[in-house]
User: What shape does this take?
Amino acid sequence: MTTVVDNLERRGLVRRERNLRDRRVVTVSLTDTGRQLISEVLPQHIQAIVEEMSVLTPEEQETLSRLCRKLGKQERQPLAEHIHAEELKRSLSTACHYEER
Assistant: This one.
């Protein structure tokens, strides 16, 4: 995330402001240039999304929307934990499969 904000800041599209009471908090805001770019690009981007989604029925669009909200709400676990969990599942699966033979 930091790299993305660094690049946007370098292009003059956003600015960072440190919270005076808690220096760990940084607010990122659009600059006038950033707002102008958004106003030019966003309508075309939205139109492209609408066109892509038009192949789905209204019911499919609702299902996709519900699934995306569900994915967005799930608690993310760090990649290392995920890899460890996957390795554990594979090991257990292999062990169980081996015992069945």
Residues 1-40 form one domain. Confidence is low (pLDDT under 50) at residues 97-101. The chain has four helices and two strands. Residues 32-53 form the longest helix (22 residues).
